[in-house]
Every structure is written in C-alpha cells, then in structure tokens.
User: Which sequence fits this backbone?
C-alpha cells in the first residue's frame, strides 16, 4: 500500500480496566482505499474504531488521523475532526423520533447554515444514492433492517466525510441487502474520494469489495494483505477464518477441565 | 462473629459511598446541563417540542386528577366544616389546600410518573441503541441537543401543570360543594378570594412547583443518561426515576414549607 496514510495506528495498547484488548497494534489506512479489519467477536475491532473516533484514549502508543494525534486534541479540536468523519453503527443508530428525511438532514441543519431548499435537494440526492429516495417520509421503525442500514449510510455521508467507518455493516442482513450494502460502501468511497474502514467478520463480502484486509486476533494483527494475497494465504488462522472451519488455531472448545471428570466417569 | 459484623459494616459503608457518588455525579450532570443550556434558548423550538411531549401530553391526567382531588376535598371539607357550622369557608379550604400543597405536590408526582419515566426510558433507549454515541460522532453535544431542551421543558411544564391542576381542583370543589351539596355560591367564591393571598399562597406554590420541576426532570434525565445500555438497565432506571423523584418531591416539600412558614 503505497499512497499517503489518512489514519495511522502505532504501537497502540488499550485495556478496559485490567483486561487488555489491544496489544501493540500497528495499522495504516491509506487515503482513498477501502480497508477491512477482520476478526472474531470480541477481538477488539470495535475498540479500534472508537480509538480512531476519539471516544477512548489508548493506554500507550498513538492514533493519528489526517496528521493529528486524535487523543491529544481538545474537545473543540476533536469535534472539528469528527465533522470530517462518518461512522455507521452496527444497527444504524437512526434517531427513532425523526423521519428518514430528518435523520439525513440532521447534520446539515446542525452544522451548516444552508437554506432548507438546498438541504432538501442534498437529502434527496443522498437518499437516491442509497436507492431509498421513496422512503423519506417514513419513520425508522417502518424500515427493514437492511433499509435502515442504508438510510444510516446516507446519513453518515451527509456531509461528505473524508473518513467513513463501518462497524459490522453486514451483520444480520439477508444476502440481497448484504450485496447492496457492500456495493454501496465501495461506490460511495470512490465517488466521495473518501477512505473507508470496514470492521466486520464477513469474509466473503469483504473479499469482494475491499482493497486491503487486516486480520486481528487476541488484540494484535496476525495477517494482512490484498484480497488475492489473503485467498492464497496458507496461514492456519486465515485458512480457518476464510473457510469458516470449526476447529483450527481458534479452538471450538472454550477451555475447561477434564471432560471425563465433568461426566463423573 | 466479628468478621460478620465487619462485613455488614463494610456493606453499609459501600452503599453509602456509592449513594454519595451518585448524588455527586447527578449534581455534576445538572451542572453540565446548565452549562450547555444555550442551545435550548437560542433554538427555542427544540424546547417547545419537548414541552409538547412532556407538558401537553400530561395534560389529560393532570386535569382529570385535579378535578377528582378537588371533588374529594369538597366532600371531605364539607363534612368537617359542617360540624362547626362553617360550610361557607369551603371555598377557602379547597383553594388553600390546592394552591399551597396539593397542586404543586400532586402535579409533580403525576409528572414524574407520566413524563419523567418516559424521559428516562427514551434517553436510556437512545443510549442503548447507540443514538447518543452517533450524535457524539457527528460532533454534536448530546447534552446540549437532547438533554438540556428536555430539562427546560420539564422545568417550565411542572408549574404550568400545577396551576392547571389547582384550577381544575377548585372547579371540582365547586361542583361538589356548590352544585351538588348546595353551599352558598357567593360565600364559596368570596371567602376564597379574601383568604387566598397572592404572594404568600400562590407565589409560594409556584416556587415549590418550580423546584419540583428541576428535581424531577434532573433525576429523570440523569437516570436515563446513566442507565446501563440493556433492557434491565433501562427498566431499572425508569423505576428509580419514579421512586427517587417521588421521595425528592415529598422531602423538598417539607423543607420548602418549613422555610416558607418561617418566612411568612
């Protein structure tokens, strides 16, 4: 990956209390690319996004976004940086007391002085981009899971962010919605000239749309590469993950005592 | 034996310390709300929208409850006053009980269970469904945008609701006392007019309900914002809102009444 880095994570350690989550993490996210961070549940992927978004601070090491160390910014600086970021939460996190239209218009109204007619045009364009212009009058409760995710995506890109973060964008979607959301991630990134970080455990969908993948296990990067390199990888963990095998370096059994003893044999 | 006593004492100590922490956190939260209140006034329509949800939507329960409380006061008051031959003072009794005590206290209690619990559940669920985090990530302060307008709406709503409660109560007392039982209408109203003092009775009642408004809304919002983002967390927080605000209203009522009587 040769192009200039938008996000750099260097020697980052992070722990919730005494429980270490990230151990000496090093990652680079170059501009204009779609990069996946993959790994099993609870391996620290979402923590990584929260570090980049500045919601939490690393125990040691640094996280640099667009040349600035994010956890050294004051509140005003952090908010200025967040205006250039967009984050899609796992289940969309749409504001349930607002219509689809108001959800997408929310940031435009809060952060800009644009006239309402222009906001209307922009909202319609964003909704059109995700194929849901016709839903602008609906409330979030009236949308299916996949549609809610797409509306949330339209809201995430409302102010054309330079960095878009996706937290499990494929979780709980049917195969059609999954492909739609996957393609949208790629297309929006290219259209906006943004950089996308996709945290997911859906290997097959990621391999189709991303430029580069990182594999996280036990708080550290254990494999990385382009989709072709990952497909060709012989590393046991990557093999197990890509093919969804039950047993391998990630054991099927949670560590426990002697089986015979548990059965009173 | 000694170990058991120590353990019990430690348990009590731990609970006291955690209660003090909670009170401290709650006060700090109230400070944050006040600090970030600019948006609630600059964009007053945000506050008005919340005023509709917490105030207008509570109107029916307040009006119906006020009417029945007034009717009961009319009945009970008449029964007692009749013994001393002072039925004509019924208007004063109904109005003073409502304006000084029952209006502010009952309206605030009803507000806590109707609107306070809804505020806690709404904020708690917004947190559980990551709506609060989403707002933070959009560089929008959720305390300024979501919490403060609800706070000021509650603070405005409670005195207004208490006033309407009292008005309906007086009407209920009139219905029972004058229309049903037949107390003289002229003395009912004139006694009321001559005994209810604007500053000592009405204004003190308004001050009480303003204080209750601050207490109930602050408790409701703090519990919602502080709730663990789970189903049990939100339901526990909703219950705590009703219990804590009811106790706070009654305790504050005693303190305020004591202060006001001394002052008077």
Assistant:
């Amino acid at each position: 990956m040769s192009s200039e880095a938008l996000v750099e994570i260097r020697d980052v350690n992070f722990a919730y209390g005494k429980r270490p989550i990230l151990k000496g993490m090093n990652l680079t996210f170059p501009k204009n690319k779609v990069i996946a961070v993959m790994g099993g549940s609870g391996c620290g992927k979402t923590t990584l996004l929260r570090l980049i978004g500045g919601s939490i601070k690393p125990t040691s090491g640094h996280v640099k976004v667009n040349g600035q160390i994010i956890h050294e910014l004051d509140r005003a600086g952090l908010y200025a940086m967040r205006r250039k970021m967009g984050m899609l939460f796992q289940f969309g996190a749409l504001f349930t007391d607002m219509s689809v239209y108001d959800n997408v218009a929310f940031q435009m109204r809060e952060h800009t002085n644009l006239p309402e007619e222009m906001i209307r045009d922009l909202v319609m364009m964003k909704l059109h981009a995700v194929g849901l212009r016709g839903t602008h009058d609906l409330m979030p409760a009236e949308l299916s899971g996949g549609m809610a995710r797409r509306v949330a995506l339209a809201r995430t890109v409302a102010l054309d962010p330079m960095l878009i973060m996706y937290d499990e964008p494929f979780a709980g979607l049917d195969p059609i919605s999954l492909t739609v959301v996957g393609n949208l991630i790629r297309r929006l990134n290219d259209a906006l000239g943004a950089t996308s970080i996709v945290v997911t455990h859906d290997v097959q969908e990621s391999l189709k749309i991303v430029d580069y993948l990182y594999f996280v296990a036990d708080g550290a990067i254990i494999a990385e590469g382009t989709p072709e390199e990952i497909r060709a990888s012989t590393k046991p963990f990557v093999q197990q993950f890509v093919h969804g095998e039950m047993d391998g370096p990630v054991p099927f059994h949670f560590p426990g005592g002697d089986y015979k003893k548990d059965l009173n044999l | 034996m000694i170990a058991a006593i120590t353990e019990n004492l430690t348990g009590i100590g731990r609970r006291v310390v955690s209660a003090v922490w909670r009170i401290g956190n709650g006060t700090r939260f109230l400070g944050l709300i006040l600090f970030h209140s600019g948006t609630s006034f600059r964009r007053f329509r945000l506050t008005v929208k919340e005023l509709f949800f917490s105030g207008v939507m509570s109107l029916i329960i307040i009006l119906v409850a006020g009417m029945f409380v007034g009717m009961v006061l009319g009945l009970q008051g008449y029964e007692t006053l009749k013994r001393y031959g002072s039925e004509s003072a019924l208007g004063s009794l109904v109005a003073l009980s409502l304006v000084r005590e029952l209006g502010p206290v009952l309206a605030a209690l009803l507000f806590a269970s109707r609107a306070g619990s809804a505020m806690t559940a709404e904020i708690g669920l917004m947190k559980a469904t990551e709506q609060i985090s989403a707002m933070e990530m959009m560089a929008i302060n959720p305390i300024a945008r979501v919490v403060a307008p609800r706070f000021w709406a509650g603070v405005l709503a409670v005195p207004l609701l208490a006033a309407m409660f009292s008005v309906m109560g007086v009407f209920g007392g009139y219905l029972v006392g004058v229309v049903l039982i037949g107390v003289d209408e002229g003395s009912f109203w004139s006694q009321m007019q001559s005994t209810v003092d604007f500053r000592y009775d009405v204004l003190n009642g308004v001050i009480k309900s303003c204080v209750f408004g601050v207490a109930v809304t602050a408790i409701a919002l703090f519990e919602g914002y502080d709730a663990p983002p789970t189903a049990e967390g939100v339901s526990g927080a909703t219950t705590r809102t009703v219990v804590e605000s009811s106790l706070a209203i009654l305790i504050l009522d005693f303190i305020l009444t004591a202060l006001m009587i001394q002052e008077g």
About this structure: The longest helix of chain A spans residues 175-192. Chain A has ten helices and ten strands. Strands of chain A lie at 5-16, 19-30, 34-38, 60-65, 68-69, 85-88, 163-167, 195-200, 212-217, 220-225. Chain A touches chain B at residues 53, 55, 78-80, 82-83, 85-87, 89-91, 93-97, 106-107, 110-111 (CB under 8 Å).
